[in-house]
Amino acid sequence: MTSGGNPFATVSNMRIQKSYEYAASPEAVFAMLADPEFQAAKCEAMHPLSHTESVTPKGEQTEIVTRRVVSTDGFPDFAKSMIGPKLAITETVIWSRASMDGSRTGTIVIGIGDAPVGMQGTISMMAGGVGTQMEINGDLKARIPLLGGTIEKTAEPWVVAAVDKEQEIGRTWLTR
Q1: Nearest-CA neighbor of 136 among 40, 56, 21, 5?
Q2: Residue whose C-alpha is closest to residue 67's, from 83, 46, 97, 85
Q3: Which of 40, 41, 32 is nearest to 62 (CA)?
Q4: How far apart, in Å, do the first and last CA atoms of the chain sit?
């Protein structure tokens, strides 16, 4: 898709959809997600150079922010040349208050450094499956002329790996 009549100003996007389950109630899953120690464990599992995490109640909502600084070793050369030796990734999830059945919805925003690349979407949890069903639906967008699709293809496996790692850490966490 082009914008503003400029054939070099392309905006691309890639849909990210992921569903998974936890063998616990939505209340227990949310308590885990809202635990700063869980958020730190989730960050550490991705082997960042550094990380910070915060969980902040905001009225009837809860804001969870993690920031990881990662090495770009292993990134394609074209990406490293654009972003340098390290990259800051900020994930912000804002959860609604719980419904009567414990379900919640929220928004997720992933910012990737100062680059015009990121993901915005929705996240939800509800009773179902083995206990709690989680769903993430988002659009990964790169607003970079000519390279947007390539950047998205490079970023997409990282985003999916981070979601998969969070699920893995969460399953272990809930069995403690």
Answers
A1: 21
A2: 46
A3: 32
A4: 48
**CA distance linking residue 27 with residue 92, whole number of Å:** 20
90-132 pLDDT, tens per residue? 999 999 999 999 999 999 999 987 767 789 999 999 999 899 9
pLDDT value at 149 more than 60: yes
Distance CA 60, CA 140 (A): 28
What is the layout of strands, in order, in the sheet containing 86-95? 12-22, 131-142, 117-128, 104-112, 86-95, 61-71, 50-58
Question: What's the rounded Cα separation, in Å, for the pair 89 and 103?
Answer: 28
Alpha-carbon span 141 to 85, nearest angstrom? 22
Question: For residues 127 and 26, is the Cβ–Cβ distance under 8 A?
Answer: yes
pTM of the predicted structure, to 2 decimals: 0.84
Q: d(Cα 22, Cα 26) in Å, to the nearest integer?
A: 9
